[in-house]
Recover the amino acids of this structure.
């Protein structure tokens, strides 16, 4: 610790020895520094504050009709992207700074300078945003802030306009595509209905019920035919004079009748095929068995009819004439019933074919209708979405969804905000004092002298036997006194000069 104190004392003595050099350096540094601070250009700054009111009554009213834009997020994004390069270049054009830039390098310099000096702040709690800018030209400062404020307001209103227009354009393209699909689907349904008009299901028409009714009607007609043939055979038997033989009914299988045998064989084969598919209680099986029984009975009646009568005059009796008339009527009725059975059989076959094709036709028609309905639903949804997108775009750009209130408009600054000359003057004085002391200390180190016996002993390593005190003469004392007074006057003048430049700075501000 004593060594540190000794070194400090030695340094102070060295500075004191070359104090005039230090004072000269102080004056030189202070004068140059104060002159540089004095010639610094004034810096003007202006600030604009704007309040964004995002609480609008339109938002809850239109919440269920369209997509309400998030205006808080929209304004926040715009405030963060306000200092983008395109916006800064737009500001340069708005304040005519681009006129002063003759080369691309100067233009880039202007853009960089603006981006560095513009300050944007905001509070998310109260939605208050501040825009500030500083420059040597007060009018330029105001114009730049006003331009930024204009871009901020316009950008907030138009932030979603472009997106809404793109969305509407995309939806319009989809609507046109679905219109073409709808026209194609409508033409397909129309052509299919024209092609299968008689097979398409109609209201109140059931092919299953129609087929059952047709089968019943056909069976009834066949039964009526059998009854008519049986009646005709009975009349013919009476006309032939045949009388039934009691207890000796002939076996139908033993009677030779090729026409009826072929029909019975065909019915038996049809019965065998029906038995493979249905039960005994099925109406077709019951009617077929009944028809076979009637044909077998008819064989018996025909066999009896072929028997001749022993009475040769029976062909001339009035009864025989009546029987012949009745027989002709019965033949006519049988022929009419046969024609009806054939027609009903043809209709039944046609209806059966249609009933087999109807499910496929219905399936194809349902598929076409389903595709058409899907396209129609999507088309109607797109129409609604387009209207909602247009409403959303109009809502994004309306002045009612959010309002801007300028709290502090940009004004033309009358007093400069910088540079801080009092602080710079003080800093120059401190630097000058330190520079003078450092220069004096440097000279003392370059031209060392031994100012104490301790320093001499440390430097030479020899023992100091004693010291001789300086005996100052009167002239030397006066000179030392003048030297101290001059040194004090130099320091006092330096401090007075500092006070003068500080007063000048305060008056200028």
């Amino acid at each position: 610790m004593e060594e540190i104190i000794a070194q400090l004392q030695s340094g102070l003595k060295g500075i004191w020895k070359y104090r005039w050099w230090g004072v000269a350096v102080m004056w030189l540094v202070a004068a140059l520094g104060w002159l540089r601070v004095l010639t610094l250009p004034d810096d003007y700054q202006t600030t604009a504050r704007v309040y964004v009111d995002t609480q609008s009554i339109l938002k809850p009213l239109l919440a269920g009709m369209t997509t309400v834009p998030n205006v808080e997020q929209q304004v926040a994004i715009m405030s963060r992207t306000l200092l983008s390069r395109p916006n800064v270049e737009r500001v340069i054009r708005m304040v005519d700074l681009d006129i002063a830039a003759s080369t691309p390098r100067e233009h880039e310099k202007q853009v960089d300078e603006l981006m560095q000096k513009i300050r944007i702040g905001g509070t998310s709690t109260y939605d208050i945003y501040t825009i500030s800018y500083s420059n040597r030209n007060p009018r330029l400062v105001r114009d730049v802030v006003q331009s930024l404020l204009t871009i901020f307001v316009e950008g907030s209103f138009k932030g979603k306009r472009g997106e809404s227009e793109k969305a509407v354009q995309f939806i319009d393209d989809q609507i046109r595509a679905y219109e073409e699909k709808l026209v194609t689907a409508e033409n397909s349904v129309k052509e299919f209905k024209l092609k299968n008009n008689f097979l398409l299901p109609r209201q109140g028409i059931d092919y299953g019920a129609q087929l059952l009714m047709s089968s019943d009607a056909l069976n009834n007609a066949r039964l009526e035919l059998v009854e008519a043939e049986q009646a005709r055979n009975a009349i013919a038997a009476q006309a032939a004079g045949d009388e039934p033989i009691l207890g000796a009914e002939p076996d139908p299988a033993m009677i030779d009748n090729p026409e009826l045998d072929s029909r019975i064989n065909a019915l038996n084969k049809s019965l065998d095929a029906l038995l493979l598919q249905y039960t005994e209680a099925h109406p077709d099986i019951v009617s077929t068995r009944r028809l076979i029984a009637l044909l077998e009975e008819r064989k018996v009646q025909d066999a009896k009819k072929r028997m001749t009568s022993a009475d040769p005059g029976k062909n001339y009796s009035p009864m025989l004439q009546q029987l012949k008339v009745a027989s002709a009527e019965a033949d006519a009725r049988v022929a009419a019933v046969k024609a009806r059975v054939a027609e009903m059989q043809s209709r039944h076959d046609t209806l059966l074919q249609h009933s087999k094709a109807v499910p496929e036709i219905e399936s194809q028609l349902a598929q076409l209708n389903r595709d058409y309905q899907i396209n129609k639903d999507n088309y109607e949804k797109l129409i609604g979405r387009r209207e909602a997108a247009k409403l959303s775009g109009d809502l994004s750009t309306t002045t009612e969804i959010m309002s801007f209130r300028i709290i502090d408009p940009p004004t033309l600054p009358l007093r400069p905000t910088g540079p801080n000359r009092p602080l710079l003057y003080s800093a120059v004085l401190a630097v000058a004092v330190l520079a003078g002391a450092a220069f004096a200390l440097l000279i003392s180190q370059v031209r060392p002298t031994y100012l104490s016996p301790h320093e001499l002993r440390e430097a030479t390593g020899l023992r100091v036997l004693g010291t001789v005190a300086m005996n100052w003469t009167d002239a030397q004392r006066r000179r030392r006194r003048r030297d101290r007074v001059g040194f004090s006057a130099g320091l006092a003048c330096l401090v007075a000069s500092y006070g003068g430049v500080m007063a000048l700075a305060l008056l200028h501000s």
